[in-house]
Amino acid sequence: MTAADSMRQEIVRRLDFESYKALLRGLTEFGDREQGTARNRAANDWIEERLRGWGYETERVHYTFARRVGDSPEPRDQVFGTLVGATRPDEMYIIGAHMDGRGGGEAANDDGSGTALVMEIARVLASEDIVSDRTIRFALWNNEETGLQGARAYVEQRAELQGIEDPPGSGRYPEPRWMGMIQHDMMLWDHGNPVTSQQALDADVDVEYQLVSEMADESAQLGLALINANRMHATDYPAVLSNAMSNTDSTPFMDLTPSVSLRENRRLYETGNGANPHWHQPTDLFETFSDRDFMLGFNAAQTTLGALTELAGIRLVR
54 pLDDT band (50/70/90 cuts)? Predict the structure, then answer.
């Protein structure tokens, strides 16, 4: 490896398996975090407290949601934290996961697994001896389960603000220009179909982009960057690339910036066809999953952080 490769690997090795599991355990203590509930609001506060504790400035996106046609809209919000770029603060990668869930269990996999992944990467990048040339935003979406309303609200409110310095001459960019969006949605369970009791021998991290999007070519290149990072940095599971990204918070971004989604299985062809019997079920509990399952999510974290070290210019300063 080159010296730069070795430095990137040193950064990725700071991800901690037990820390990832502890963050996921913390999220499951709020139950399924269904949007509009007290447990959802408490989990949002908990996420924000963790991000602030690591030194990030946080913001909330406020929007409204009507449960049924004809109902009065109700207020909703979601949290994001930002690592400001050292040399290119006007350019940004967004890494995201949805913190809301459903099913009456703990929403451990859907999508506590993705939320904990984003937070574990944020924890590592908060280190004083790490800088990033480009800005990185850690977005924990709400209302994914009801139709991606949180992610859509972010795009609607902030897309036109991209790259605008505010105030002029300040070097501050409230919404840097989007360089790419990397989503994480259900990261633990690849037990084959028919489903087996243990993680499948050919389990992998699925990296998906949408072939019919306006940014399909650029999204495929982003996906390949993640595949290559997985080969260099992931310890247990490989990654594969497919082109039918669907039903996740990267969808509102896909015509505006390169966008991919990391998953345990392809959404349309596997998850949607019974590959995960715990999806939206009371059995989506922390205790349902084994360390081999958690390791799949942890390898996805290694994959994303490994790619970001090169894409965003993350480096160690001695």
Answer: very high
Instruction: Output DSSP code: residue 141.
Output: E
User: For 14, which DSSP code?
Assistant: T
Q: How far is CA 291 from CA 3, 110, 137, 185, 274, in A?
A: 32, 17, 28, 18, 22
Helices (H), 166-312: 216-233, 291-311
Our measurement of the distance from residue 39's CA atom to the centroid of its chain's CA atoms, rounded to an integer in Å, reads 21
Instruction: Report pLDDT digits (tens) over 245-272.
Output: 999 999 999 999 999 999 999 999 999 9
Q: Write out the two tokens for 3.
A: 């010296």
Q: From start to end of 155-229, where are the E strands?
A: 177-184, 205-208
Dist CA 174 CA 268 (whole Å): 35
Separation between Cα atoms, residue 87 and residue 263, nearest integer Å = 32
CA dihedral 240, 246, 250, 255 (to 10 degrees): 100
Give dist(CA 96, CA 118) in Å, integer: 6
Gap between the Cα atoms of 298 and 295, Å rounded: 5
For 16, which DSSP code? -
pLDDT of amino acid 79: 98
pLDDT tens digit sequence for 291-304: 999 999 999 999 99
Amino acid at 123: R
Name which of 137, 138, 117, 153 is nearest 27 in CA terms.
117
Give, for 144, the enclosing helix (H) or strand (E): none
Q: Using alpha carbons, list the distances in angstroms from residue 249 to 12, 198, 235, 260.
A: 25, 29, 27, 10
CA gap 249, 22 in Å, rounded: 24
According to DSSP, the β-strands at 177-184 and 88-98 are parallel
Q: Tell me if residue 145 falls in helix, strand or coil.
A: coil
| Residue whose token pair is 């650029």 | 218
